[in-house]
Amino acid sequence: MTDISELTPTKTIDVRGMFCPEPVFRTKIEMERMAVGNILKITADDPASEEDITRWVNRMGHQLIGIKKTDKDLEFTIKKVK
Q1: ∠40-4-53 over CA atoms, to 5°?
Q2: Which of the following is catalytic: 7, 18, 20, 34?
Q3: 20 noted as active-site residue
Q4: What digits encode the pLDDT tens for the residues 57-79?
């Protein structure tokens, strides 16, 4: 895994306070708007997001660069591959 702190996200979204399936839905919308090679950072606080977003990224063929957990928040860093 790449050191997340060295990457500058192209776009950052905050989906805290939203629950399944909204975080995945918002992630999908933003990824569709981005160019290949761009990096999206998502901040979520729904515990189900870890599994939901990870599964979605793998299914869509993008690259999950990392997940950082801080207190109640999860930060996902995803690179658009296709």
Answers
A1: 45
A2: 20
A3: yes
A4: 999 999 999 999 999 999 999 99
